[in-house]
Amino acid sequence: MARFLLAWELGGDYGHLMRFLTLARELVRRGHEPVFALRELTHVETVLGSEPFRVFQAPIFAGQVTGLPAAIGFAETLMRLGFVHPATLIGLCRGWRTLVDAIAPDLAIFDYAPTALLATRAWAGPRVVFGSSFSVPPRTEPMPIYQWWRGEPLARVLSSERIVLRSANEVLARLSQPPMSRLSDLLEADESIITASEEFDQYPGRVGARYWGNVGNLEQGISPQWPIVGAKRVFAYLKPYFSDFEKILVALRKIDAAVIIHSPGVSADMTRKHTAANVAFSAEPLRMVDIQRECDIGICHAGGTVDTLVTAGKPVLALPQQLEQMMTGKRLAELGAGIVVEPRMSPAPDYARLLRRLLEEPSFTVAARAVAQRHAGDGPPARIRRIVDRCEELIATAPSGRRIPAPLPNQQDSSM
What we know:
Layout: E1 3-8, H1 15-29, E2 33-38, H2 44-48, E3 54-57, H3 74-83, H4 86-103, E4 107-111, H5 114-119, E5 127-131, H6 154-174, E6 191-194, E7 232-237, H7 245-254, E8 257-262, H8 268-274, E9 279-282, H9 288-294, E10 297-300, H10 304-310, E11 316-318, H11 323-335, E12 338-340, H12 351-360, H13 362-374, H14 380-397
Parallel strand pairs: 1-2, 1-4, 2-3, 4-5, 5-6, 7-8, 7-10, 8-9, 10-11, 11-12
């Protein structure tokens, strides 16, 4: 039996937990022990339920860095996580090192966890970088910008990377570890696992990558109970704080379709107001394997649900709320497998018209089905088995014994 650390540091929503849940269940099936270190514990009970896993709060940056413009790439995201304050960063690294020492894993899997990667560069156990294409950016110099469809000043990208690299190397020096030569060295690992389809890589044009595919737990959740009114079926996963949330609900009542909506945190008043003969709300997450099979189109904010639906041949109305989602939305639009509504679009979109287009114009479904054909015969269970196979191989071939790094300043014993 081996012990696996499943560490998540950045991001939100169900995606990270769903990926880890699928992975953890396969690990347990093979006799291994998964241990979680999670950024958020909010959805642990909803997603993990009564699963007998050990769960720790991950060390995360709780401060706020002000005065920075909107991030244009990975370096500027790291600035907001304490990577411009070495004293803060050393404290976070101390937390990660202590946690890893307490858990004593045989292999560590990091889902969007850059501080944990920095803290464990000296650890001798196998390390795996794991997650969406956004959280596993290409290891280029400079690293790619987020809004690749617009372009950003190269001088700013290089300057930001130098600032963050200097700070990270100061921390490594205090940890008695060799410096990194470039910022993308932070992502060094024994394996990089991009849990996305190539069509939805948020960094198009990536060279030499292997795409393991979406591994979200599609079996988790309850079976959808569709309204009996409506010629077609529409699945919606929406956030109630979305600026056009109620406009979408009004539009859904107008179309000839049975609609089921999952909106975590939606008020009881809003649910009562917009429940109709053709519109139902589900307080619980829905079983996505059923949704893939039964719905005609989907609506979401352009997270991992886009990959889940389009690779099943279902077009999507994407309503991105932030940059990572917009990157996915741009790939969706390129494929022709959906419609993207950009934030603050002017004039205001006619959501009922857009939904009717997706339901009635065949080009969207044809494009989505073309994607689905490329992924036929594969799915999360087979993908997760391949991932665990690779992890077991890394453990089996890892050098015996562990190098113990020097103690952190002002500590009496080593942290790892």
